[in-house]
Structure formats: structure tokens, C-alpha cells
Specification:
Shape: globular
GO molecular function: nucleotide binding; oxidoreductase activity; zinc ion binding
Family: Belongs to the zinc-containing alcohol dehydrogenase family. Quinone oxidoreductase subfamily.
Pathway: Cofactor biosynthesis; ubiquinone biosynthesis
Distance between the termini: 38 Å
Organism: Falcunculus frontatus
Helix content: 25-40%
GO cellular component, one term: mitochondrial outer membrane
Number of domains: 2
């Protein structure tokens, strides 16, 4: 993907240019923000959010056409991860007395490049792009957002902005777990038995499709009312976790080469017993105590506790013949390039639960808060009033 970026630059796709400083009629924009942590009442609409500014040569400003919500937005609204995220926002504590507020939530964006920094040669104003903005940056529930060029990718040509906004964050989260942490790729998945726990949510629906695109055998766990959707996405076996003891149901199946756990909790206590021993089989969970530890214990003690926890669990399971791993969302334009190719080839499609207008953001949060989503909750930002 990185080579593709270089080739596109060399072919004149987006010639180098200087820092743009186009005149603006205003310095503020519409945005949904929070001024404190809490439940849904902390969401506030404003037309006076500061317009994003390019601070670094590799940044671009994107006009947001569509965004989407993820569980992390609910968590961040309530203050989850604030200690770690604020350290990332201001590691040297230079902004004494300032806070992260007003804070804009939203990680996914599909839109059009409006302005580019001096070091950006891969994109130009007018390009249709998509991206997942890291949680320590201002989010996408806004008219414009600034992103690093290496976080951005060209939007799949076959998708509308509304469709494209459903994929970046969940796609990169699944990509991190399966490819970068789990070591799976197109050349080594054929015939592998993969179990996906929590298969009907955003990450799960993407993971099912990616594993089928890479020719794995997929067993998906979800509720009965989501089974039709998950089968349509290509799952070979679908297990209803409500129809009986899930552990016992899974024990009747052949052992697995890989498990992706989107659920956490008690599943970790027995799921690793479903892996093939001494074969390189791997369990990867997306439910980790990393940010919770830092919120509760502070940065230093939280990181120490996290290191002790993951180290002890890794060693414990390694002695039993299986690999234990944690995975996290990682922003990556090159990975989105690869995902876009899979989308344009028809191997991955967005799964959208419901679409809301920009004026309905609080309603969209309540929808997500209700749980049991079948895919993503998308916000049409260009439909704002």
C-alpha cells in the first residue's frame, strides 16, 4: 500500500504544494461537543466550534460528509480513558490550566479534502477520502476535521460517503487484531478455523468478511436475530449464544486456529481451551484493562499494572501451548488503502444499522447506547440544518 502511495505521487496524482492559507469567511463551524463527561445530556450543539487549523506539514483538513458512532464514543462521553488520552494530547503538560473541552466525539469520517499541509503530496483539495481519527484528536461530528496524511486514504469508489463512513474505525480495529497482532493475511488463512465472538457488531461484521476474503473457515457467535445477517456475510457456522451454554456448544466443534474476542468478560476464562495446542494457535481480545488501569491508578501505576497483567497472562497460556494477545485500534492510511481495495473488489461491504441526520446526533447516541446493533450507526453530516 505504501508503494502504491509512492507510485501515485510519482505519476502526478497529487503534486507537491505549499501550505495553503485560503481566506475564510468565518473562523467557526457547526459541531457537536461535550463540555464535561457524563451521559447523553452533556452533548451540546454549537455553531461556534473553532475551525480546524493545520499545525503540521503532513496534515489535511477534510470537509465531513458523513461520520459514524462507535462504542468508544459512548465510553469517551462518560470519561473512559481520559487520563491516557489527555497524556497523549499534551505529553509535556505545556497547556497548564487548559482542558480537553470542548471535545468533539466521532472517529469515522468520509468526506472531501479541503486543504493540505506543506508536506502532503499524496492528496490534493477535492479528493474524496476516508479516515479513522485517533481518539486523542478532535473528532468528526463536525463540519470539518483535521487529520494526519498518514491516517487518510482514498475513499472506495463504489461507496457513497454514508456507506464509507461505516467502515474505517471498525475496519482498522479488526485489521489490527487479525493482521498486525494476530499475524493473519491473505497467504496464510486458507483452511484455518477462525472463531469470532461478538460477530454482529461493527468489528465483528468486518472481521467475518475479512476472514472469508482470505479464505478462512469462520465460526461466528451472535444472537439468533443476527444469524441471517452474519450468514449473509459469509460465516460458515453461526452459533446462537442465547440458545444454551455457549462454552458447551463450542466444545462440540473442532478446535480453532484463531479466536477474535469482541466480548471479553467471562469468555476469556474458557475460550482459550478451544484452541489447538502447540500449533501456533492464537487468541486475540479487544477488551483490555489498559485505559481503565490508567484512569484508576494514574499513568505510571496504570501502565505498570497493565504490563504485569498482559505479561502474566501471555506466559500462563504460552505454557499451555497457545498464544494470548491484546489488540487495539491503530490509525493507518496504508491499511485503509488495502481495505479500500477489498471493498472495491466486492469482498467487503459496509453493514449499517441506521442512518441519522446531523441534527439527530443525541438520538444516534441513544440508539447506540441501547446495544444489540447490527452494524454501524451513521451520521449524515451534510444533512445538517
Amino acid at each position: 500500500a505504501a508503494t502504491g502511495r509512492a507510485l501515485r505521487w510519482a505519476s502526478g496524482r497529487a503534486p507537491a504544494r505549499g501550505l495553503r492559507a485560503s481566506p475564510r469567511a468565518r473562523t467557526a463551524m457547526p459541531s457537536w461537543v461535550i463540555d464535561r463527561y457524563g451521559s447523553n445530556e452533556v452533548l451540546r450543539f454549537t455553531r461556534e466550534m473553532m475551525f480546524p487549523i493545520i499545525h503540521f506539514p503532513n496534515e489535511v483538513i477534510i470537509k465531513v460528509h458523513a461520520a459514524s458512532l462507535n462504542p468508544i464514543d459512548l465510553s469517551m462521553r462518560s470519561g473512559y480513558g481520559a487520563t491516557a488520552l489527555n497524556m497523549k494530547r499534551d505529553p509535556l503538560k505545556l497547556k497548564t490550566g487548559e482542558t480537553e473541552f470542548p471535545l468533539t466525539l466521532g472517529r469515522d469520517v468520509s468526506g472531501v479534502v479541503m486543504e493540505c499541509g506543506l508536506g502532503v503530496s499524496y492528496f490534493k483539495p477535492g479528493d474524496e477520502v476516508w479516515a479513522a481519527i485517533p481518539p486523542w484528536k478532535q473528532g468528526t461530528l463536525s463540519e470539518f476535521v483535521v487529520a494526519s496524511g498518514n491516517e487518510v486514504s482514498f475513499k472506495p469508489k463504489c461507496l457513497s460517503h454514508t456507506e464509507a463512513a461505516a467502515l474505517p474505525y471498525v475496519g482498522l480495529t479488526a485489521w489490527s487484531a487479525l493482521n498486525q497482532v494476530g499475524g493473519l493475511n491473505q497467504s496464510n488463512c486458507s483452511g484455518k478455523r477462525v472463531l469470532i465472538l461478538g460477530a454482529s457488531g461493527g468489528v465483528g461484521t468486518f472481521a467475518v468478511q475479512l476472514m472469508k476474503a482470505w479464505d478462512a473457515h469462520v465460526t461466528a457467535v451472535c444472537s439468533h436475530d443476527a444469524s441471517t445477517l452474519v450468514k449473509k456475510l459469509g460465516a460458515d457456522d453461526v452459533i446462537d449464544y442465547k440458545s444454551g451454554d455457549l462454552e458447551e456448544q463450542l466444545k462440540t466443534l473442532p478446535l480453532f486456529d484463531f479466536i477474535l474476542d469482541n466480548v471479553g468478560g467471562s469468555t476469556e476464562k474458557w475460550a482459550l481451551d478451544l484452541l489447538k495446542k502447540w500449533s501456533g494457535a492464537t487468541y486475540v481480545t479487544l477488551v483490555t484493562p489498559f485505559l481503565i488501569n490508567m484512569d484508576k491508578l494514574g499513568v505510571a501505576d496504570g501502565m505498570l499494572q497493565t504490563g504485569v497483567t498482559v505479561g502474566s497472562k501471555t506466559l500462563k497460556h504460552l505454557l499451555k501451548g497457545v498464544h494470548y494477545r491484546w489488540a487495539f485500534f491503530m490509525p493507518s492510511g496504508p491499511s485503509l488503502d488495502e481495505i479500500a481495495e477489498l471493498v472495491d473488489s466486492g469482498k467487503i461491504q459496509p453493514v449499517i444499522d441506521e442512518v441519522f441526520s446531523f441534527s439527530e446526533v443525541p438520538k444516534a447516541f441513544l440508539k447506540l447506547e441501547g446495544g444489540h446493533a447490527r452494524g454501524k450507526t451513521v451520521i449524515n453530516v451534510t444533512s445538517r440544518q
